[in-house]
Amino acid sequence: MVATPPVALSASPARVMLAAHETQTVRVTNAGKSVAFVDIVPAGFALGLRGRPRVVPQSGARWLRVRPRHVALGPGRAASVSVSSGTAPPGPGDHAALVLLRTGTGQRGGIAVRMQIGIVVVLRVPGAIVHRLRLQGARVRRGRLELAFRNDGNVGEHLGPGRVRVTLLRRGRIVAKLRVAPRDLLPHSNGVAAVVFRGRLRGVFDVAVEVSSPGGSARVLRRTFRLRL
Predict the structure, then answer these.
(1) Cβ-proximal residues to 158 (8 Å cutoff; 6+ apart), any chain
(2) Could you read off the pLDDT of 44-102 as tens digits, one per residue?
(3) Could you tell me whether strands 220-228 and 204-212 are parallel, antiparallel, or unpaired per DSSP bridges?
């Protein structure tokens, strides 16, 4: 039998898309066996070069409003949290932030149980939407093939198998078609997407990369790199 943890917090949905002056509700549940005292805190949000989420100062999320700011959840209990956009940040497009749920039980035997989870909130400010995704290069790092991107647009871009196609060629013949690990790229940011392949591919290859535009547009960005794997 698996023991019930003191605190087991979950939130649904884990990602919220907001329009200007819109409010949505997030359901927070405590599946643990102890009372969870939850602080609900807005915070800024960023993604590292390889897609790792990071909490940044709240100055990046001044537009985000949450209510209530504190709840106490007994075992098996749930509460609703309102998430809304206040004054819209300048500039059209996507603006990302976090709602942090910081929990702690009361002292039990001198030990405080604490955890933190984050809900990503994306506010889309109306105006001209710009898609401007740039493929800056490709390299082999620690035996892995990586593609470097720059998002100069004002909306988030999703990279993955349906958007990015990678083909290995040798002397003009196709050796393998590779898959790109999915990840998101926030506006005005750099990011690296990992290319996944199985088996042993060794030697010098031409790496042909095709990046399609979102929404089924016929525009395709194509670049070829010569690399040693």
Answers:
(1) 182, 183, 184, 185, 214
(2) 999 999 999 999 876 667 899 999 999 999 999 999 999 999 877 778 999 999 999 99
(3) antiparallel
Residue type present at position 14: A
Spatial distance between the Cα atoms of 71 and 124, rounded to a whole number of angstroms: 28
Whether residues 98 and 164 fall in one domain: no
Question: Is 1 within the bounds of a domain?
Answer: no
Claim to verify: residue 30 and residue 109 sit in the same structural domain:
yes
What is the model's pLDDT at position 109? 46
The domain in which residue 50 lies consists of: 9-125
Pairing of strands 93-104, 36-47: antiparallel
Q: Give, in order, the Cα–Cα distances in Å from 41 to each of 51, 65, 106, 139, 177.
A: 22, 9, 19, 39, 44
